[in-house]
Specification:
There is one protein chain. The chain is mainly beta. It has 5 helices and 21 strands. The strands form 4 sheets. The chain has a 7-stranded antiparallel β-sheet, with no helix packed on it. Strand 14 (204-206) and strand 15 (214-218) form a beta hairpin. InterPro entries: CT_A_B (IPR003778), Cyclophilin-like_dom_sf (IPR029000), PxpC (IPR052708). Keywords: ATP-binding, Hydrolase, Nucleotide-binding. It comes from Pseudobowmanella zhangzhouensis. Residues 26-297 form the Carboxyltransferase domain.
């Protein structure tokens, strides 16, 4: 197996993410996948790969790679300046990198995560048939740890494909105000009316204490739910309301159990938008019926 890329500057949190580790939550194993699945799938669309084929997920940018083999690549997600041997190259479009060239991703100016895909068969370790890296559980690619300076990804380039571009209308935007669609859960009817009124009428702010597991929201303290629950399963987008009244929205590497009341779940496409929201972004919620949510998918 030959090296495909080497991380000269790996950044603060760079991992390989791909197919979910589904069906293992009852063992306490997180599904673990890209927090912005939309951008990951757009990368794979450009490269004519399976929708959830593994890509390199890079938090906040400021990364430099050296390519050991010639391969076609694409980048989607958070916005930053991308340079190939000092020459600016575009996001949301395929381009070829030749062996020996350096790709530099500057600090992200919008969003939190950027995704690099390569038209190659990657040779990475898997756990439970998925290469998605769970740092918390030490599972998946790179023995379940983030890439560091000097690490390599091995792989074999595939046949060249025509140049592809994602239209502007299909690219994520990164506003400082978000409205997230929430489908009510079974506990919705048990929550006090006053709590629900405040939840849907007041804005929250994305906290800096957020990450791949979930996004913490700060704002007006929600009234006590007065619900006492046994811990139960959590899914992507679940909105927990802990005792301090500050909601937490579950993301791609969420834990499998939680004992706080859940008002409902944010739809999957909005989870991607929330994952890319910078600290300080204002967030509001709107109620969406199950029927309407099914028609969105």
């Amino acid at each position: 197996m030959a090296a495909l890329i080497e991380f000269l500057r790996a950044g603060p949190l760079t991992t390989l993410q791909g197919p979910t580790r589904a069906g293992l939550s009852h063992y306490g194993v997180s599904p673990c996948f890209a927090v912005d699945a939309i951008s990951l799938m757009q990368v794979n669309q450009l490269l004519k790969r399976e929708p959830l084929a593994p890509c390199v997920e890079m938090a906040l940018g400021n990364i430099e790679l050296r390519f050991a083999q010639t391969v076609q690549v694409a980048l989607c997600g958070g916005h930053g300046q991308i340079y190939l041997d000092g020459v600016r190259v575009p996001m949301y479009r395929t381009f070829k990198v030749k062996a020996g060239q350096h790709l530099r991703i500057g600090p992200l100016t919008q969003g939190n995560y950027i995704y690099l895909g390569m038209a190659a068969h990657l040779h990475e370790s898997t756990s439970f048939a998925s290469p998605s890296c769970s740092v918390r559980e030490e599972l998946g690619a790179n023995q379940g740890r983030p890439y560091k300076n000097g690490d390599v990804i091995q792989g074999n380039p595939l046949t060249d494909i025509p140049i592809q571009t994602i239209p502007f209308a299909q690219r994520l935007t990164y506003p400082w105000q978000l409205t997230l669609s929430l489908v009510p859960g079974y506990q919705f009817r048990q929550l006090p009316k006053g709590l629900k009124q405040v939840f849907f009428s007041q804005p929250f702010t994305v906290s800096a204490e957020s990450g791949r597991m979930g996004v913490r929201l700060a704002g007006v303290n929600l009234p006590s739910s007065q619900l006492r629950l046994v811990s139960e399963g959590l899914g992507l987008g679940a909105v927990q309301i802990p005792d301090n009244g500050q909601p937490i929205v579950m993301l791609g590497e969420h834990q499998t159990l939680g004992g706080y009341p859940k008002i409902g779940s944010v739809i999957e496409s909005d989870c991607a938008r929330l994952a890319q929201a910078r600290p300080g972004t204002k967030v509001r919620f709107r109620l969406l019926s199950r029927f309407a949510a099914n028609h969105l998918n």
